[in-house]
């Protein structure tokens, strides 16, 4: 730099012009050095590192490259150069050094943030990340580093010890508690969620209070991100999962079966004892032949043993069409390829109500996928609604407009026939 001053003086220029011109030349020269150093670090050094990482067999190398960890670290080179040349400007040396140090700290914070994010991405490549997510903890560490960095930058700029600023934070603790309330609650909630294994990434949860019904796709410090069935995204505060109730379908997904619990209403006026013709018809049904033979033998032995007079059908035991239909459904489910045979299969009657007699199916499909589950359930009830009339049963439904119109037409036809007969 002294050489530049001497060179300008040898050109016999005005000393005042030499002073300012030399400063401009020094600034331009330092700028060129910074640009050249930044170019070398990014275009040559970073490219060499990228090639080495790409050619290596380390599986997390691409993640570090994607997060641009080395590229962000390269920004520290210009600040080191500027700090080194600060003595060139004695008047502003202290200010330049402070700004260079502040810039270096900021670059370091950006580098640490990228490194932490890369570490989280690497961790997510392991299966344990779905059970024990660490994103919330990484965000806490990031906040700590950012807070420390902010204190260091301020203390450097004002020329005071960081301990002085730290001592002042105690007085601002109430304000900090208010500002970071959600983060603190989220941190505690995240520890509880992880320790108790309450929710994982990939779990299907329901939380009607927040309109959430879908898969958990992200668990962070403050929020849990849920993708609903309609592909919308619902953000739930982390602490809400510990303070409010929610349903987690993970148990169902891991059990290997998804429950069917649906009923059909039978018109009670269609329930009757089975006639001889009905029994002869039912005994030819694949899923009923063994049941009918066994049940008929059991009933005959019971009635004979108790000397029951069967001339009155009320006496003794007899088959009913609703009972045979219930046995048919049970055997049908036990032979259905879509039903899990190792889990509960029940066909039961519920309390009679104004809609008829509820006949409920309680069983589990052997596939937990939603589409497969709905298909199996629909196929079963398609069959049962179609086969119910074969047992002399009517499925109840409230009268529709077509039913009322048919009744009116039937009444009109009867009245017309009666008038003609008269």
Summarize the structure.
The protein is an alpha+beta fold. Helix content is about 60%, strand content about 10%.
Q: Would you mind describing this structure in some detail?
A:
With 422 residues, this protein is an alpha+beta fold. The chain is built from 18 helices and 8 strands. The protein has 3 domains: 2-194, no CATH class; 199-252, SH3 type barrels (Roll); 258-272 and 320-401, Alpha-Beta Plaits (2-Layer Sandwich), CATH 3.30.70. Helix content is 58%, strand content 11%. The strands form 2 sheets. A 5-stranded antiparallel beta sheet has the order 4-3-2-1-5. Strands 6-8-7 form a 3-stranded antiparallel beta sheet. Helix 1 (2-10) crosses helix 2 (15-55), helix 6 packs antiparallel against helix 8 (135-158) and helix 8 (135-158) crosses helix 9. The protein starts with a helix and ends with a helix. This is Mechanosensitive ion channel family protein.
Poorly predicted regions? none
Structural class: alpha+beta
Strand content: 5-15%
Helix content: 55-70%
Strand tally is: 8
Nearest-integer average pLDDT: 82
- What's the arrangement of strands in the largest beta sheet? 4-3-2-1-5
How far is the first residue's CA from the last residue's CA? 132 Å
How many structural domains can be distinguished in the coordinates?
A: 3
- How many helices? 18
User: What is the molecular shape?
Assistant: rod-shaped
The whole-angstrom Rg is: 41 Å
Report on the biggest sheet.
5 strands, antiparallel
The ordered H/E elements are HHHHHHHHHHHEEEEHEHEHHHEEHH
């Amino acid at each position: 730099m002294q050489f530049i001053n001497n060179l300008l003086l040898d050109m016999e220029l005005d000393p005042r012009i030499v002073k300012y011109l030399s400063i401009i030349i020094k600034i331009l020269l330092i700028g060129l050095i910074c640009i050249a150093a930044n170019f070398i670090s990014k275009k040559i050094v970073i490219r060499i590192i990228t090639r080495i990482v790409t050619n290596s067999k380390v599986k997390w190398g691409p993640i570090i490259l994607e997060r641009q960890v080395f590229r962000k670290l390269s920004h520290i080179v210009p600040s080191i150069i500027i700090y080194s040349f600060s003595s060139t400007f004695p008047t502003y040396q202290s200010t330049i050094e402070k700004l260079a140090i502040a810039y270096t700290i900021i670059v370091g914070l950006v580098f640490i943030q990228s490194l932490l994010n890369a570490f989280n991405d690497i961790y997510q490549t392991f299966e344990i990340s779905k059970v024990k997510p660490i994103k919330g903890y990484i965000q806490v560490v990031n906040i700590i580093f950012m807070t420390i960095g902010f204190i260091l930058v301020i203390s450097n700029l004002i020329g005071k010890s960081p301990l002085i600023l730290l001592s002042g934070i105690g007085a601002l603790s109430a304000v900090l508690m208010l500002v970071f309330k959600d983060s603190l609650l989220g941190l505690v909630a995240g520890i509880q969620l992880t320790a108790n294994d309450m929710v994982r990434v990939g779990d299907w949860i329901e939380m009607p209070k927040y309109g959430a019904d879908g898969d958990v796709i992200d668990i962070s410090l403050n929020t849990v991100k849920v993708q609903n069935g309609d592909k919308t995204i619902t953000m739930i505060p982390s602490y809400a999962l510990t303070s409010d109730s929610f349903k987690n379908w993970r148990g169902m997904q891991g059990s290997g079966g998804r429950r069917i619990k649906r009923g059909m209403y039978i018109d009670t006026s269609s329930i009757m004892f089975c006639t001889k013709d009905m029994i002869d018809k039912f005994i030819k049904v694949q899923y009923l032949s063994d049941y009918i033979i066994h049940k008929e033998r059991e009933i005959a032995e019971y009635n004979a043993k108790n000397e029951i007079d069967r001339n009155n059908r009320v006496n003794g035991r007899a088959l009913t069409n609703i009972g045979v239909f219930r046995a048919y459904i049970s055997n049908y489910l036990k032979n259905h390829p879509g039903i899990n045979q190792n889990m509960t299969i029940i066909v039961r009657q519920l309390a009679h109500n104004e809609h008829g007699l509820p006949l409920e199916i309680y069983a589990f499909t052997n596939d937990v996928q939603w589409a497969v589950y709905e298909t199996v359930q629909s196929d079963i009830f398609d069959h049962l609604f179609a086969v119910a009339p074969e047992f002399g049963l009517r499925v109840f439904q409230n009268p529709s407009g077509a039913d009322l119109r048919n009744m009116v037409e039937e009444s009109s036809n009867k009245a017309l026939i009666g008038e003609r007969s008269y």
